[in-house]
Design brief:
Strand content: 5-15%
Mean pLDDT: 93
CATH architecture: Up-down Bundle
Pathway: Cofactor biosynthesis; adenosylcobalamin biosynthesis; adenosylcobalamin from cob(II)yrinate a,c-diamide: step 2/7
Shape: elongated
Low-confidence stretches: none
Strand order of the largest sheet: 1-2
Largest sheet: 2 strands, antiparallel
GO molecular function: ATP binding; corrinoid adenosyltransferase activity
Main location: cytoplasm
Subcellular location: Cytoplasm
Family: Belongs to the Cob(I)alamin adenosyltransferase family.
CATH class: Mainly Alpha
Length: 190
Protein backbone atom coordinates (compact mmCIF):
# COMPACT_ATOMS: atom_id res chain seq x y z
CA UNK A 1 0.00 0.00 0.00
CA UNK A 2 1.17 3.49 -0.81
CA UNK A 3 0.99 6.16 1.89
CA UNK A 4 1.98 9.70 0.94
CA UNK A 5 1.67 11.89 3.99
CA UNK A 6 4.70 14.08 3.34
CA UNK A 7 5.34 15.19 -0.22
CA UNK A 8 8.82 16.63 0.09
CA UNK A 9 11.56 14.64 1.80
CA UNK A 10 14.71 16.57 0.85
CA UNK A 11 16.38 13.24 -0.03
CA UNK A 12 16.72 14.27 -3.67
CA UNK A 13 18.15 17.70 -3.08
CA UNK A 14 21.63 16.59 -4.17
CA UNK A 15 20.46 15.17 -7.50
CA UNK A 16 19.76 11.56 -6.58
CA UNK A 17 16.60 9.52 -6.22
CA UNK A 18 15.69 6.12 -4.82
CA UNK A 19 14.79 3.20 -7.03
CA UNK A 20 12.15 0.67 -6.03
CA UNK A 21 14.76 -1.52 -4.35
CA UNK A 22 16.14 1.38 -2.28
CA UNK A 23 19.29 1.97 -4.35
CA UNK A 24 20.07 5.64 -4.92
CA UNK A 25 20.97 6.80 -8.42
CA UNK A 26 21.40 10.11 -10.21
CA UNK A 27 18.14 11.71 -11.31
CA UNK A 28 19.47 11.60 -14.88
CA UNK A 29 20.14 7.83 -14.70
CA UNK A 30 18.90 5.88 -17.75
CA UNK A 31 16.40 3.96 -15.60
CA UNK A 32 14.97 7.20 -14.16
CA UNK A 33 14.74 8.67 -17.68
CA UNK A 34 12.81 5.61 -18.84
CA UNK A 35 10.22 5.57 -16.06
CA UNK A 36 10.09 9.36 -15.94
CA UNK A 37 9.10 9.41 -19.60
CA UNK A 38 6.37 6.85 -18.95
CA UNK A 39 5.10 9.24 -16.26
CA UNK A 40 5.20 12.11 -18.77
CA UNK A 41 3.23 9.94 -21.19
CA UNK A 42 0.67 9.27 -18.46
CA UNK A 43 0.19 13.02 -18.01
CA UNK A 44 -0.41 13.45 -21.75
CA UNK A 45 -2.94 10.62 -21.64
CA UNK A 46 -4.69 12.56 -18.87
CA UNK A 47 -4.88 15.59 -21.18
CA UNK A 48 -6.27 13.42 -24.00
CA UNK A 49 -8.95 12.10 -21.65
CA UNK A 50 -10.32 15.65 -21.35
CA UNK A 51 -11.50 15.26 -24.95
CA UNK A 52 -12.46 11.57 -24.79
CA UNK A 53 -15.82 10.03 -24.01
CA UNK A 54 -17.32 6.60 -23.49
CA UNK A 55 -15.25 3.58 -24.50
CA UNK A 56 -12.29 5.74 -25.58
CA UNK A 57 -12.11 7.38 -22.14
CA UNK A 58 -12.50 3.98 -20.44
CA UNK A 59 -9.64 2.55 -22.48
CA UNK A 60 -7.43 5.54 -21.80
CA UNK A 61 -8.11 5.12 -18.06
CA UNK A 62 -6.87 1.50 -18.30
CA UNK A 63 -3.76 2.71 -20.11
CA UNK A 64 -3.07 5.26 -17.38
CA UNK A 65 -3.17 2.52 -14.78
CA UNK A 66 -0.93 0.31 -16.95
CA UNK A 67 1.57 3.16 -17.23
CA UNK A 68 1.83 3.34 -13.44
CA UNK A 69 2.44 -0.42 -13.44
CA UNK A 70 5.08 0.10 -16.12
CA UNK A 71 6.82 2.82 -14.10
CA UNK A 72 6.78 0.58 -11.02
CA UNK A 73 8.32 -2.21 -13.09
CA UNK A 74 11.06 0.01 -14.53
CA UNK A 75 11.99 1.55 -11.18
CA UNK A 76 12.69 -1.89 -9.72
CA UNK A 77 15.98 -3.34 -11.08
CA UNK A 78 17.23 -6.87 -10.42
CA UNK A 79 14.39 -8.88 -11.94
CA UNK A 80 16.35 -12.06 -11.17
CA UNK A 81 15.97 -11.42 -7.42
CA UNK A 82 12.17 -10.90 -7.53
CA UNK A 83 11.53 -14.26 -5.83
CA UNK A 84 13.60 -13.26 -2.79
CA UNK A 85 12.05 -9.80 -2.42
CA UNK A 86 10.15 -9.10 0.81
CA UNK A 87 7.27 -7.72 -1.29
CA UNK A 88 6.79 -9.12 -4.79
CA UNK A 89 7.65 -6.36 -7.29
CA UNK A 90 4.94 -5.30 -9.70
CA UNK A 91 5.83 -6.42 -13.22
CA UNK A 92 4.08 -5.88 -16.54
CA UNK A 93 2.48 -9.06 -17.88
CA UNK A 94 1.67 -10.32 -21.36
CA UNK A 95 -2.09 -9.99 -20.71
CA UNK A 96 -1.68 -6.20 -20.73
CA UNK A 97 -0.12 -6.39 -24.19
CA UNK A 98 -2.83 -8.80 -25.41
CA UNK A 99 -5.54 -6.37 -24.25
CA UNK A 100 -3.97 -3.59 -26.33
CA UNK A 101 -3.74 -5.88 -29.35
CA UNK A 102 -7.41 -6.86 -29.06
CA UNK A 103 -8.40 -3.19 -28.79
CA UNK A 104 -6.23 -2.25 -31.78
CA UNK A 105 -7.80 -5.02 -33.87
CA UNK A 106 -11.32 -3.98 -32.83
CA UNK A 107 -10.73 -0.28 -33.55
CA UNK A 108 -8.90 -0.97 -36.81
CA UNK A 109 -11.73 -3.15 -38.16
CA UNK A 110 -13.86 -0.02 -38.67
CA UNK A 111 -11.13 1.90 -40.54
CA UNK A 112 -10.37 2.05 -44.25
CA UNK A 113 -6.80 1.17 -45.24
CA UNK A 114 -4.47 4.14 -45.48
CA UNK A 115 -3.16 5.33 -48.85
CA UNK A 116 -0.81 7.92 -47.32
CA UNK A 117 0.80 8.75 -43.99
CA UNK A 118 -1.38 10.63 -41.51
CA UNK A 119 -0.35 14.05 -40.23
CA UNK A 120 -1.06 14.68 -36.54
CA UNK A 121 -4.27 16.63 -36.34
CA UNK A 122 -7.91 16.55 -37.32
CA UNK A 123 -9.84 16.60 -34.07
CA UNK A 124 -8.45 17.83 -30.76
CA UNK A 125 -8.52 14.28 -29.39
CA UNK A 126 -6.71 12.89 -32.44
CA UNK A 127 -3.97 15.51 -32.10
CA UNK A 128 -3.58 14.72 -28.39
CA UNK A 129 -3.40 10.99 -29.14
CA UNK A 130 -0.63 11.69 -31.67
CA UNK A 131 1.32 13.48 -28.94
CA UNK A 132 0.80 10.38 -26.77
CA UNK A 133 2.03 8.21 -29.66
CA UNK A 134 5.27 10.13 -30.03
CA UNK A 135 5.96 10.21 -26.29
CA UNK A 136 5.27 6.46 -26.15
CA UNK A 137 7.89 5.98 -28.88
CA UNK A 138 10.39 8.04 -26.87
CA UNK A 139 9.63 5.97 -23.76
CA UNK A 140 10.20 2.84 -25.84
CA UNK A 141 13.54 4.16 -27.14
CA UNK A 142 14.67 4.95 -23.60
CA UNK A 143 13.57 1.53 -22.32
CA UNK A 144 15.43 -0.24 -25.12
CA UNK A 145 18.49 1.92 -24.46
CA UNK A 146 18.32 0.93 -20.79
CA UNK A 147 17.98 -2.74 -21.74
CA UNK A 148 21.32 -2.51 -23.53
CA UNK A 149 23.16 -2.31 -20.21
CA UNK A 150 20.65 -3.23 -17.50
CA UNK A 151 17.96 -5.81 -16.98
CA UNK A 152 14.51 -4.72 -18.19
CA UNK A 153 11.34 -6.78 -18.23
CA UNK A 154 10.88 -7.48 -21.97
CA UNK A 155 7.11 -7.03 -21.60
CA UNK A 156 7.75 -3.34 -20.83
CA UNK A 157 9.30 -2.83 -24.25
CA UNK A 158 6.62 -4.86 -26.02
CA UNK A 159 3.88 -2.93 -24.22
CA UNK A 160 5.35 0.46 -25.19
CA UNK A 161 5.73 -0.68 -28.80
CA UNK A 162 2.13 -1.84 -28.95
CA UNK A 163 0.92 1.24 -27.08
CA UNK A 164 2.23 3.64 -29.71
CA UNK A 165 0.36 1.58 -32.34
CA UNK A 166 -2.75 1.79 -30.14
CA UNK A 167 -2.50 5.58 -30.01
CA UNK A 168 -2.13 5.76 -33.80
CA UNK A 169 -5.23 3.64 -34.45
CA UNK A 170 -7.16 5.47 -31.72
CA UNK A 171 -6.27 8.81 -33.32
CA UNK A 172 -7.88 7.61 -36.55
CA UNK A 173 -10.99 6.53 -34.63
CA UNK A 174 -11.05 10.01 -33.04
CA UNK A 175 -10.98 11.47 -36.55
CA UNK A 176 -14.43 10.16 -37.44
CA UNK A 177 -13.10 6.64 -38.05
CA UNK A 178 -10.41 7.99 -40.36
CA UNK A 179 -12.74 10.10 -42.52
CA UNK A 180 -11.27 13.31 -41.07
CA UNK A 181 -7.63 12.18 -41.09
CA UNK A 182 -5.21 14.79 -42.39
CA UNK A 183 -3.11 13.01 -44.99
CA UNK A 184 0.45 13.80 -45.95
CA UNK A 185 0.89 15.00 -49.52
CA UNK A 186 4.55 14.35 -50.41
CA UNK A 187 6.25 17.43 -51.83
CA UNK A 188 3.06 19.50 -51.74
CA UNK A 189 4.85 22.72 -50.83
CA UNK A 190 7.82 22.61 -53.21
Amino acid sequence: MVVLNKIYTRTGDKGTTALGNGDRVAKHDARVNAYGTSDELNAFVGVARLSAEGAMDDRLALIQNDLFDLGADLCRPDIASDAEAEYPPLRMVEAQVKRLEAEIDEMNSALSPLRSFVLPGGSALAAQLHVCRTVARRAERLATELSGHAEVNPVVITYLNRLSDWFFVASRVANNNGKDDVLWVPGANR
